[in-house]
Amino acid sequence: MTTFTPAGALAALALVASVGCRKAQAPPPATVPVTVARAERRAVPFELAANGSVEPLQTVALLPQVSGPIIRIAFTEGQEVAKGQVLFQIDPRPFQAALAQAQAALDRDRAQAANAEQDAKRYASLSEKEYVTAQQYEQARTTAEAAVATLAGSQAAVDQAKLNLQYATIRAPISGRSGSLRVRQGNLVRTTDTAPLVTINQIRPILVRFAVPASNLGVIQSHSESDLVIRAEPTGGGSASEGKLSFVDNAVDTATGTILLKGTFANRDGALWPGEFVNVRLRLYTEENALVVPSSAVVSGQQGTYAFVVQPNGTAGTRKVKVERSAGDLSVVSGEVQPGDRVVTDGQLRLRAGSKVQINNPGDSARTGAGAS
Known about the structure:
alpha+beta, six-stranded antiparallel β-barrel, conserved putative lor/sdh protein from methanococcus maripaludis s2 fold, elongated, 5 helices, Elongation Factor Tu (Ef-tu), domain 3, CATH 2.40.50.100
């Protein structure tokens, strides 16, 4: 039979108390590695984002205005051409012959008209002296007038022949880039053809068309007196181009609830191409002294949006924020975040209020250590 002494009972009680204390103590919280950025005030542009497409300022599809075989093509397909540059030469010989024939008929009719005019003047003088009858004078005058009309018709025939001869040489009506050739040297072209010989697109300058929600029409109109800047970046990648807003449609598309806009771009480097899809940003104005944080710092929860902030003691705290708008990868916010606060941009999933943090940013690690000490 075991006998308990007072000293043994006290030792047992001390052992139980020691075990209970160890169980009550919580393990120290794990340090969470995070990436941070500074909340700051800066000038932030107010921009509208949209998807757009590039279209040429002008497009011309060249069709023959006279018929005949093509004897020369004076450019290479895909080449940039200048206004007035010779592109095609249709055999001019039939039109040269027609012009010579019309010119000869004009010379003949001019001589006949001059002779008829002299006869009419002579008969007028004789009629006053009654050497000829009035009927003879009227006949001479009518012949002179008919000769003048015939002369006018011959002049019109010469003008038409000259025009046809000019049409035999096909020139570029605008400056731009030529498309694929539909004909080759030696092909016979006719005025009844419907397929263009070539299509020319003017790409300098060039247009970008896009649509924005009609709810933005008021703010666009309020800033329409200034030159509104547009940036367009090809969706497939490439350098962004900058242009100016040049067109606001006169009606809202009731089917989509959007308003059509167009921007004009100098496109000197040829970065924008007709038919290309682009990401468009229309800058309306710049908000000075806006409080911004990286958009990745904003967290959505049941109580709204908030951000984790690294406090001076090296632990995480939550601050309620309201996102006013986005500007690229930044968010313009209001609420409890203050300029200079270190907001967490990566690692929020493991954080809770009071968690100890380890800042991974090389530039902020020293300041974090100083703040925690």
